[in-house]
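Protein modeling request. Please complete all fields; requests missing the sequence field cannot be processed.
Requester role: graduate student
Desired output: 3D structure, token encoding
Chains: 1
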Amino acid sequence: MMLQLDDVRVSVMRRLYQKQEQRPWDGEWQDLLDTALDLTLGHKRAADNAAYLCRNVIRDARRTLHRSAASSREAAACRPLADAARRRVCTLTNDGRPTAEMVTQASPEAWAIAEETFRELREFAAGLGAHGLGCLQGMLDRVPASASAKQTGVSIATVERTRRAIRLHAQSLAGINS
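Delivered output (178 residues):
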């Protein structure tokens, strides 16, 4: 079916080009608008109102880019690494989602850093209360929050708050900003 360019589609394309000129330095915005232009030209998309169509194609372009980035990460996670000292092990989580874990040839320095980090996490978890170490162990064993709550004798909400605090502390130790 051949696309008929009507006034609504032309108006939306003008709006998208104007938005593109407003932020020419932003590469992600340019990709988003490029995808939105492609979606505007799709013959299956209803074109009744220019304002709604413009909003919808930008929203759908954002979703399309997020979905393609996620699938690219998942595909890359299962490819082997070039470095022989590092490799990925692909497994499935309890709910069936694929996960990739890095396996490296550990040096004595790496073991020392890991032990020190783990010791600091244990100290932090112990400082959160009597349930802290149990929550940390539950996280390491990938036990659901409900089971960890039963084991430690606290509520699920307390387990989730404790796990969140431990994760934030671990990220601060690793220098990761979230």
